Amino acid sequence: MRAGGPLARGAAGAGLALGLPAALLALWWVASAGSTNIFLPPLRVIVEAFGRVWLSGTFADDVVPSLWRLGASYGAALVVGVVAGYAIGRWPVARALTSPLLAYFRVLPAPVMIPVLLVAVGIGDATKLIVIGLGALWPILLNTADGVRAVDEVQLETAAAFRLPVWTRHRLTLRAATPQIFAGARQALGISIIVMVVSEMLMSTDGLGFTVTQFQRSFAIPEMWSGVLLIGALGFALAKLFELVERRALRWHRGHTGREEPS
Length: 263
Fold this sequence. Notes:
This is Nitrate ABC transporter permease. By secondary structure, the protein is an all-alpha fold.
């Protein structure tokens, strides 16, 4: 094992991940330097607005509530989706009963539920949490069900032949479905961010979506663009954090498939 090997690979991976965004930002900076269009200000002006707006009290007032809603809704969807998806994938009766319902809700966009929830629940965090959770739920649930159904029957029969405890058999099945569960969770994270911003634009008095909309309505165009950049940066950071967790959690899977990283 070479000393510093993992560190060097990590630095190389970070360089590749940041290289294209940095190049695009540099191109944007140069191309927009002489812009006089009020709706497409120079990137320099947007960066100045970014520091003025988001490196002040606005961060705590708007970014923290958004992250709290995202984390709470996503966490609840993860728990419900894995539990329900496991039951649907493991037992054919549950799958047969829920199949028509899943076929309907899987194609129903979460923002469509906003008017219904506004009438039923009212304006408040509860409505936004439910909408974000619904957006995240279906990818997790469906991928979990597919992953559980795809578990090798020989593995299940072997566990039963050795008379392993029922809980151990369930744990082995869930572990075998983990790669598919992570695939659904990764997709759900992106959907959650989108639905969070949309819900805050339509029915909130704080949060990133609300603040960007307020900037747009007051024609504070550089500030509006700075909010767009911040949302993109937060999404990128959360995706990379999820990737780090996924790589650690699925290290056994890469070894099983012969794709483990060299040490």
